[in-house]
């Protein structure tokens, strides 16, 4: 039977263990912050996009249900976003729901809708991540396809961060690149016809630059895309940021190259399932991008 003194000893050792765990986790946090601070002293990409893939395989590998996989995926989004914000990345885009994802089972679609509704509002709430780092939320895509309660949450969440302007978070849903490009072509034509009093020849004035400036992501302030990351080992773009990630330099004459389009998007396929993706997956990606910037700078200066 336990005596009062052995019970006290047990409680004291438990407290010591707790303190040790706390100190260790604080030390880890401090080391991570130091690492980000050092990285942020180098060149930093303006725009990083993520295809957050592998939530269901992650869930299966951990014996969890699919909904938990998506829930853990949301926690990873918070973690990765905070890393980007600490590095002073101006714009982060994430593929949260493809238009095609409506074809998944009704149960999974419903769970993703509830997740979107609650987590968008959570992210934007007073004192939460987007307010703390002065980030504006843009939901990019065909939001009219969402159930009404999600549409309301989107409008409310965007409104809560409307005045924030240090950084941008683009949550792309329900999104597809082809849809974004089609909408941009349509509105470019409409605008040309309006300006030219319906004279069809004005359509000839539409350039790549015109279409680029009509992309929803560009209209909402996104800079050119520097890095695109897809997790979970799948090597496809799955209709995400196809225009933004196109290497314009290889297909166009320099004199014709549009200013806004990106000429050097680095595409990274990472093996980690999205819910497990973190600092130690991201640091090598940033280092590789920094090396390419330094190399380009070196090339330019040695040509002079
Ligand atoms: C892809 O993995 C992931 C999704 C379709 C959903 C991603 C959504 C989140 C991470 C949360 C979003 C949060 C907000 C705020 C909207 P998958 O389902 O294709 O998994 P698999 O590749 O293993 O099948
Ligand atoms: Mg997938």
UniProtKB/TrEMBL annotation:
<feature type="signal peptide">
    <location>
        <begin position="1"/>
        <end position="27"/>
    </location>
</feature>
<comment type="similarity">
    <text>Belongs to the UPP synthase family.</text>
</comment>
<dbReference type="InterPro" id="IPR001441">
    <property type="entry name" value="UPP_synth-like"/>
</dbReference>
<dbReference type="InterPro" id="IPR018520">
    <property type="entry name" value="UPP_synth-like_CS"/>
</dbReference>
<dbReference type="GO" id="GO:0016094">
    <property type="term" value="P:polyprenol biosynthetic process"/>
</dbReference>
<protein>
    <recommendedName>
        <fullName>Alkyl transferase</fullName>
        <ecNumber>2.5.1.-</ecNumber>
    </recommendedName>
</protein>
<keyword id="KW-0460">Magnesium</keyword>
<dbReference type="GO" id="GO:0016020">
    <property type="term" value="C:membrane"/>
</dbReference>
<dbReference type="GO" id="GO:0005811">
    <property type="term" value="C:lipid droplet"/>
</dbReference>
<dbReference type="Pfam" id="PF01255">
    <property type="entry name" value="Prenyltransf"/>
</dbReference>
<dbReference type="InterPro" id="IPR036424">
    <property type="entry name" value="UPP_synth-like_sf"/>
</dbReference>
<keyword id="KW-0732">Signal</keyword>
<dbReference type="GO" id="GO:1904423">
    <property type="term" value="C:dehydrodolichyl diphosphate synthase complex"/>
</dbReference>
<keyword id="KW-0808">Transferase</keyword>
<dbReference type="GO" id="GO:0005783">
    <property type="term" value="C:endoplasmic reticulum"/>
</dbReference>
<dbReference type="GO" id="GO:0045547">
    <property type="term" value="F:ditrans,polycis-polyprenyl diphosphate synthase [(2E,6E)-farnesyl diphosphate specific] activity"/>
</dbReference>
């Amino acid at each position: 039977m336990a005596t009062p003194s052995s019970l006290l000893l047990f409680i004291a050792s438990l407290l010591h263990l707790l303190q040790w765990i706390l100190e260790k986790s604080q030390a880890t946090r401090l080391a991570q912050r130091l690492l980000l601070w050092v990285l942020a002293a180098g060149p930093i990409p303006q725009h990083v996009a993520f295809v957050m893939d592998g939530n269901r395989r992650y869930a299966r590998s951990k014996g969890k249900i699919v909904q938990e996989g998506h829930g853990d995926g949301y926690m990873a989004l918070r973690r990765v976003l905070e890393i980007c914000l600490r590095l002073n990345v101006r714009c982060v885009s994430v593929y949260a729901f493809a238009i095609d994802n409506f074809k998944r089972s009704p149960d999974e679609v419903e769970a993703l809708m509830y997740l979107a509704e609650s987590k968008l509002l959570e992210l934007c709430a007073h004192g939460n991540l987007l307010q703390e780092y002065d980030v504006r939320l843009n939901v990019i895509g065909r939001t009219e396809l969402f159930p009404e309660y999600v549409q309301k949450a989107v409008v409310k969440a965007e409104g809560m961060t409307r005045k924030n302007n240090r950084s941008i978070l683009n949550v792309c849903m329900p999104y597809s690149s082809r849809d974004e490009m089609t909408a941009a072509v349509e509105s470019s034509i409409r605008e040309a016809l309006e300006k030219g009093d319906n004279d069809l020849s004005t359509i000839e004035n539409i350039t790549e630059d015109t279409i680029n400036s009509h992309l929803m992501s560009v209209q909402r302030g996104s800079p050119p895309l520097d890095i695109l990351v897809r997790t979970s080992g799948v090597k496809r773009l799955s209709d995400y940021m196809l225009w933004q990630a196109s290497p314009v330099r290889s297909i166009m004459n320099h004199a014709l190259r549009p200013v806004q389009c990106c000429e050097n998007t680095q595409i990274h396929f990472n093996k980690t399932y999205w819910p497990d993706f973190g600092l130690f997956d991201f640091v090598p990606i940033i280092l590789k991008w920094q090396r390419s910037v330094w190399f380009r700078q070196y090339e330019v200066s040695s040509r002079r």
